[in-house]
Amino acid sequence: MNNEIPQGFSSYASESIGDNKQCVAGAASDEDGMNQRPVAYLAQASGKPIWTRTLDLPADTYQSRATHCLRQGDALYVLLQSDTQPEQSLSQTLLRVVKLNLADGTVRAGGDVVVPGAQGAYSALAEEGAKHLRWDNGNVVVSGQYFQLDAPDQRRDFSATLKPDLGP
């Protein structure tokens, strides 16, 4: 089990999850500051890592960052925001939730966030704050904004619900 924070790591969120522990979500960049890979780790309240997990890039993406953490029982749910291309004007940002084992950070499940109302080429984003990844009626809820790539100034709010097992 790895407990080293990768070089080039930047934190996007740090959430207290009880038991004197915190979940830290972020990304590690390569030497030139490009090509982010999502990283999540469990730390003691002092900040000392218990385990660190560099997560796989979702399919058809070139970089990704872990931006939100949520604990439920013996699992951590981490929100990934992933880009499809290096050229920002052509790139879509897609959302995915990954379920990790609280004890050691192994990946137990993953599910893509289907953004209601989005069609064709779009980008979605979840701003900072715990309200954008939360529990509601026993389900995982992701909320934020999205826009069609051909109309980037027309942003719309969304809320998407996933089952706790992240299955369909």
- In DSSP terms, counting alpha (H) and pi (I) runs of 4 or more, how many helices? 0
The percentage helix is: under 10%
**Total number of beta strands:** 12
Please give the alpha-carbon distance between the first and last residues: 30 Å
Low-confidence stretches: none
Shape: globular
Rg from C-alpha positions? Answer: 15 Å
**Order of adjacent strands in the largest pleated sheet:** 1-2-3-4
Give the biggest beta sheet.
4 strands, antiparallel
Order of helices and strands: EEEEEEEEEEEE
Structural class: mainly beta
Write the layout of secondary structure elements.
Elements: E1 9-18, E2 21-28, E3 37-44, E4 49-54, E5 63-72, E6 75-83, E7 93-101, E8 107-112, E9 122-125, E10 133-136, E11 139-148, E12 156-162
Antiparallel strand pairs: 1-2, 2-3, 3-4, 5-6, 6-7, 7-8, 9-11, 10-11, 11-12
Write out key terms for the chains shown:
four-stranded antiparallel beta sheet, globular, 0% helix, 168 residues
What does this structure look like?
The chain is an all-beta fold. Helix content is 0%, strand content 54%. The chain has no helices and 12 strands. The protein has strands spanning 9-18, 21-28, 37-44, 49-54, 63-72, 75-83, 93-101, 107-112, 122-125, 133-136, 139-148, 156-162. The mean pLDDT is 94.
